[in-house]
């Protein structure tokens, strides 16, 4: 949630999200056309790129030095890539490859996974809990939870009746959110046990395709966006069990009676009664476009970031106390000259030409430089790290561990 990577027909761009008013471009590359996957390792100089020209090949670069660390080719098209400070995961339609990110060696191949045409998978950004989640079935909403550190299956979670559409871990890897292709119910499970903690209802009027599911860094909020014009933000909170004694009113008496009655209802029915509505919402001026969301703190205030596949970034204010409708405060153009645009009614009426790649926004656990001793945006480029050029490393790929892989304290 502190940086943004986009793939375009001409290459890729990396931005820093430290200000509302200004969008800082960190890097732009036009060496590889038609980039549809670009993943940056937090705020380091390591970036993984896949293009439509070679959809079966993954290229790993140190973009500050302009060198290629290594590249790997696979048996079929790469559908998604996930990475943290410990693991790099490559997802194909029917197999998953797990690499050790420090030397890029292949540690594990999970073969014969259920057909996963969208490359749906999630990897915890906390490298101490390198859990990997992916669909365990093509016909039901079963989640396979895999421990990327021990390289063993942790558990299977029967999350939904229908096939999965979205998966997301929180920042510590202790919770996993999921949604099915229907998109009406979002569930949150404890990790690694797989117990259901929360259930949120996005809506019952129509089925939607949830394209983005993301926790806030403090795990207090969960955001879901789809191909509709509405973005939902849910608050993860349980009502306290020990409530103060209510005055003996008729409404208070009926409330207690109703609460007691739910204990005798079937689990499915009582679960429906206990579901929470959205804490906050956003009404986009567009629908039908793929978009990616992030919940971030920018300039000490909570923000909702929405990036759309036509090349725009929208920044909204989020009221963490009262919720409600989020207010659009800035719109940035990610293509062209990088100019910013103010909030006008006709801003979204003339989208830019579609590119091959959809915009990608990923979470980051890297705090600001003021709170991270030893961290520098230089990415250690001045520290003389060992980067093999155009060949696979015989020893560990060193991106200056102190600067490029700062310890995460959560």
List keywords for this structure.
410 residues, mainly beta, Methylamine Dehydrogenase, Chain H, five-stranded mixed beta sheet, five-stranded antiparallel beta sheet, 30 strands
Q: What would your notes on this structure say?
A:
By secondary structure, the chain is mainly beta. The chain has one domain (3-239, 276-335, 400-409): YVTN repeat-like/Quinoprotein amine dehydrogenase (Methylamine Dehydrogenase, Chain H), CATH 2.130.10.10. The chain is 6% helix and 41% strand. It is built from 3 helices and 30 strands. A 5-stranded mixed beta sheet has the order 20-21-22-23-27, with no helix packed on it. It has a 5-stranded antiparallel beta sheet with strand order 24-25-26-28-29, with no helix packed on it. The longest helix is centred in the middle third of the chain and has 13 residues, at 250-262. It is globular, with a radius of gyration of 22 Å. Mean pLDDT is 78; it is low at 240-247, 265-274, 338-396 and 405-410.
């Amino acid at each position: 949630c502190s940086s943004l990577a986009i793939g375009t027909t001409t290459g890729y761009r990396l931005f820093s999200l430290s200000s509302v008013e200004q969008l800082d471009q960190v890097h732009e590359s036009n060496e590889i056309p038609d980039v549809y996957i670009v993943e940056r390792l937090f705020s380091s100089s390591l970036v993984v790129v896949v293009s439509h020209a070679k959809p079966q090949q993954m290229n790993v670069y140190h973009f500050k030095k302009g060198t290629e660390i290594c590249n790997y080719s696979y048996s079929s098209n790469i559908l998604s890539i996930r990475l943290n400070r410990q693991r790099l995961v490559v997802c194909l339609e029917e197999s998953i490859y797990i690499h050790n990110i420090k030397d890029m060696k292949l540690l594990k191949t999970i073969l014969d996974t259920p057909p996963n045409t969208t490359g749906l998978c999630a990897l915890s950004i906390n490298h101490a809990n390198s859990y990997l989640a992916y669909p365990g079935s093509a016909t039901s909403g079963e989640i396979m939870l895999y421990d990327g550190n021990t390289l063993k299956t942790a558990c299977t979670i029967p999350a939904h009746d229908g096939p999965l559409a979205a998966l997301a871990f929180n920042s510590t890897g202790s919770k996993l959110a999921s949604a099915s292709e229907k998109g009406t119910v979002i569930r949150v499970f404890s990790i690694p046990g797989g117990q259901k903690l929360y259930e949120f209802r996005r809506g019952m009027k129509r089925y939607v395709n949830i394209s983005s599911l993301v926790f806030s860094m403090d795990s207090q909020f969960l955001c879901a966006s789809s191909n509709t014009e509405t973005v939902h933000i849910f608050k993860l909170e349980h009502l306290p069990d020990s409530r103060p004694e209510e005055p003996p009113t008729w409404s208070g008496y009926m409330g207690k009676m109703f609460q007691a009655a739910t204990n005798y209802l079937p689990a499915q029915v009582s679960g429906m009664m206990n579901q929470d509505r959205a804490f906050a919402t956003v009404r986009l001026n567009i629908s039908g476009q793929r978009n990616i969301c992030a919940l971030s703190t920018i300039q000490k205030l909570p923000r909702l970031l929405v990036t759309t596949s036509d090349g725009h970034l929208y920044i909204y204010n989020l009221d963490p106390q009262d919720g409600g409708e989020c207010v659009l405060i800035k719109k940035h153009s990610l293509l062209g000259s990088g100019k910013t645009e103010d909030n006008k009614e006709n801003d979204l009426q003339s989208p830019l030409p579609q590119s091959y790649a959809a915009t990608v926004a990923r979470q980051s656990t890297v705090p600001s430089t003021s709170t991270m001793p030893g961290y520098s945006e230089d990415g250690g480029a001045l520290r003389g790290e060992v980067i093999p050029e155009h060949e696979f490393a015989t020893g560990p790929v060193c991106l200056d561990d102190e600067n490029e892989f700062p310890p995460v304290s959560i």
